[in-house]
Each structure stands twice: as structure tokens, then as C-alpha cells.
Amino acid sequence: MKVSDIYSMDIYSDNGQYLGEVRDAILDLEKGEVSRLLMEEWKSSGEEEMRKILQQKSILFKNIKNIGDVVLVSAAGGIAAKGASSSAEVSDLAASR
Question: Which of 2, 50, 70, 83 is 20 to 30 A from 23, alpha carbon to alpha carbon?
């Protein structure tokens, strides 16, 4: 499956809660894998806006249980945990843009 195939897919938790729609993805080019799915487009923004997107509008790819007609996410992993996006992560992502 291509990353572009999951754009615009609905995202649900495994307990049936609608979380949003896939709008963007963050790729780890060194590992050759998707690291996060974003429910908001990743655009040139300030550090605070990027941190907000990572903390409130992203899902770690490792928390995805299945991708079919929708993206199914573990309710326990759900949206990235608050504080999961360190300043270093935001700075690294901002620098890579």
C-alpha cells in the first residue's frame, strides 16, 4: 500500500470513536517507514503550531491496528499522548522541512 492511498481515509479508534481524516503523513526516511499520520495538513508553521499538531492532531503509526476501508487505531494509543512531542522532535521536524 502506498502512503498516498490512505490520504482522506477516516480514522476511528477501536472503540468506534471517529477521530478525523488522514490529511498528511510524516515519514522517517532513515528507517524507510511512516512515523505519524496527521489529521491536519503539515504546513510551514511556527514551533508552537507544529507542537499542537503533533500533540493533538497526530497518531503514531505504531498505534494503528489496521488499514482497510478506514484507519483503525488502538484506543489506548489513539491520538499522540500529551507531552509525546518533545522540543527536539519539533525542532528536528521543522529543520527537515
Answer: 83
